[in-house]
Amino acid sequence: QTAKLTANALIPHVQKDSPETREFLHKVVELLVDYVNIQNDRSEKILDFQHPEDMKKLLNITVEDDPVSLQQLIIDCANTLKYQVKTGHPHFFNQLSCGLDVVSMAGEWLTATANTNMFTYEIAPVFILMENIVLAKMREYIGWKCGDSILAPGGSISNLYAFLAARHKMFPDYKEHGSKAIPGELVMFTSDQSHYSVKSCASVGGLGTDNCVMIPSDDHGKMIVSELERAIIQRKSIGQIPFFVCATAGTTVLGAFDPLNEIADICEKYGCWFHVDAAWGGGLLLAPKYRHPRLDGVERADSITWNPHKLMGALLQCSTIHFKEDGLLISCNQMSAEYLFMTDKLYDISYDTGDKVIQCGRHNDIFKLWLQWRAKGTLGFEKLMDHLMDLTQYQVKRIKEQSDKFYLIMQPECVNVSFWYIPKRLRGAPHDANLRAECGKLCPIIKSRMMESGTLMVGYQPDDRRPNFFRSIISSAAVTEADVDFMLNEIDRLGQD
Ligand code: ABU
């Protein structure tokens, strides 16, 4: 049947509850459920890697003048999933967002079907209320009794919201008058381990990246607070206006937590806005065992980025930005577009969140998190954090037990484990710069073997102190101790000369 039919045979072109529509959707859902099952089958590969030019030949992905059949659409969906990297596979340790929470996924399916925009209560009443409830709950875990928050399209934009609010708080006339409203050059500070989006705020916000001072970090990737103070004093001495400090709670590569209380003291002393980028480490706010000492002082921040799509396992994407001061978001970003945000509506218009943000259309990122939170309860998130951190310690233990083959770079504070693989020919050699350089050269070779064999994915990168090293991430609820052992054994297998 579907071989001849096209989308013209589906709702809304035919009457409601048409058998063709049901059949088409059931087939798509079957494919999706099969994909979920395949992802959790450890005997299945994570990916079927193809180079871009080969992939173009393998798949017909052009869009043409004429419609294709429903049958072809089903084949297209199947092929798309066939060549997609299975980020929910228990052997995928490559990104900060790993795993596939089935409840959150169901939430995303519902979200897609409801297909609404999050700018007004008028068209998203239930979702707007859910957003209020969940964001208030998150502020409670930060340690605030009030404040305001919003879901943003990713941690980078969340950080940008913090930057904009900080500038608005110090120079409210900037909104109308631009740089004329600022009596000098603004300067901001973050650590050299912070996410690149912080530096991007200086570029996007008109400061220029020269005015985002990268404060050195220590060997564990934590900002050196005395260097922060020194830099603030130095920039003030040349007439600049320090206004914004971003600390990181869980750096992208090393998973380091900056000393928040000490940075808060400096911000108070010099009158700077204190932002905490906890996009990665924020999930640990829900885990009493790990919150202290990592996130001590987080409640002193003026703003906090926290991405549930990372450690908490909500589906991509789900990023939140929180402000201690209520009213700042709306005052900073409000444009009062009369066609959307009329002031004479029949309901309390404070529920129209759309004028708080710099975008107009806003995707519904709340339902999948709300549904997941209902399913787990806060205690479920706490258990998840404990599980991920326990597995990380298991990996550290296994690396130490095999110290002839693996070289642990540091004891992790989060679920990032940084290490080198030592090939047979170098075992027993001193752990010096020469060994590190040789191990570093192996990382891209082993990674390409991982991708070609399709059995494992672990990321690698250099940093300013080290040549390439592996960074494994355990942020998927699917991972077990056996999977951690598989990761290390597979690196050993792929690392054979
Ligand atoms: N936004 C940072 C994500 C980086 C990573 O997954 O490795």
Automatic annotation (TrEMBL):
Protein's UniProt keywords contain Protein biosynthesis: no
Family: Belongs to the group II decarboxylase family.
Species this chain originates from: Corethrella appendiculata
Any GO CC annotation of this UniProt entry: cytoplasm
Keyword entries, A-Z: Decarboxylase, Lyase, Pyridoxal phosphate
Record keyword Protease present: no
Alphabetical GO biological process terms: gamma-aminobutyric acid biosynthetic process
UniProt-recorded name of the protein: Putative glutamate decarboxylase
Cofactor(s) for this UniProt protein: pyridoxal 5'-phosphate
One Gene Ontology molecular-function label: glutamate decarboxylase activity
